Amino acid sequence: MSDRGDSTRAAHAGLPDRADGEPFLPGPTFAAPYHLAGPSDASRFNYGRYDNPTWARLEDALGELEGAHSVVFSSGMAAVTAVVVPALHSGDVLVAPSDAYPGIRAIAGDLLERNGVEVRLVPTQDAAYRDALADATLVWIESPSNPGLDRVDIRALADAAHQEGAVVAVDNTLAGPLRQRPLELGADFSVTSASKHLTGHSDLVLGVVAVSNRERAAALRSWRIATGAIPGPFEAWLAHRSLATLALRLERQEANARALVDLLGARDDVAGVRWPGVGSVVCFDLGTEDRAHAFLRNCQLIAEATSFGGLHANAERRARWGSDDVGPGFIRLSAGIEDTPDLLADVEQALALSRP
Ligand SMILES: *Cc1c(COP(=O)(O)O)cnc(C)c1O
Q1: What residue spans in the chain does CATH classification 3.90.1150.10 cover?
Q2: Which of 28, 170, 210, 285 to pair with 148, CA 20 to 30 A apart?
Q3: Is pLDDT at 314 greater than 60 in this prediction?
Q4: CA dist., res. 135 & res. 300, Å (int)
Q5: Would the CB of 101 count as within 6 Å of ligand 1?
Q6: What fold, for 246-354?
Q7: Nearest residue (CA) to ligand 1, atom 5
Q8: Which residues contact 124 (CB under 8 A, 6 or more apart)?
Q9: Tell me: the pLDDT tens digits for 91-136?
Q10: Distance, CA of 151 to CA of 145 (rounded, Å)
Q11: How far does residue 173's CA lie from ligand 1's centre (Å)?
């Protein structure tokens, strides 16, 4: 399977062996207890918080795409928590990006520091990371970062972090497993919010952690059982169904993102146009809050909403959350699967109407 193309792999990932009269992708299994007579290990499936056949198929699919063991969680943040919290104790050191996803910074500040963990926040830059690595316990990387869209050399940083005895985790949400596989670059954990383009239909919240050894996967499953951070079977099934079109969606979204970058970059009334070369997210600066509001208000196709990676284009003025170090006119736009001319036309007319 692994030598086949991305779209082939995504469409077939995790499907059970063919059997006459059976569906391609079996529907979700809704169960709290399962029938289980005799010893507790008579079946892999005994109670709904422990395991579920719908999760198992989704994990097989994600594992095939990432070349790893994958463990799914109820959200991206539940996946982040499953990596970060059990790894860090009083006196340990976490190195994490100062521009990381706000939820990760909240855990670092609200929980870990109170528990005696030293938290070192650094910009997503190779040199800043290198300076902060001494005696690190866990090095958290988000590359490309969000919304800054900065990148670091994951392989080089993972090597340097391992020399300090640290474990390395990468938040891979922006790139995803078809564009970047952090485990192959030396990371110990690859974490993805599946609420974004991995599932891509803006209709579910889910997270996944990929690891390259069985022991780590077993530890993550134990954490999931203990904390109850489990996905619903219906979400897991929807995610598997949506995964089949990941490569197709991404190709169109990236073509749209590239076309938007060309359009925006050629204008003198738009500054700071950024796209990391993968994924759907394009950022740019319209200078003022008023102009950003006017742009968003005048978009007809592009929905004003947070998040990214969905098949409908959306955008927001990122400073409205107060959680990122961005200017008042900073726009984060996520390209959908719309036809490119339609998307470009929407941006052009909204920009024209937004001019003071
Ligand atoms: C959305 C996101 C998360 C959190 O994921 P949820 O599924 O919303 O819990 C973590 N990291 C990044 C980079 C994200 O974009």
Answers
A1: 246-354
A2: 210
A3: yes
A4: 51
A5: yes
A6: Aspartate Aminotransferase, domain 1 (3.90.1150)
A7: 76
A8: 97, 99, 141, 142, 143, 145, 148, 150, 151, 152
A9: 999 999 999 999 999 999 989 999 999 999 999 999 999 999 999 9
A10: 7
A11: 7
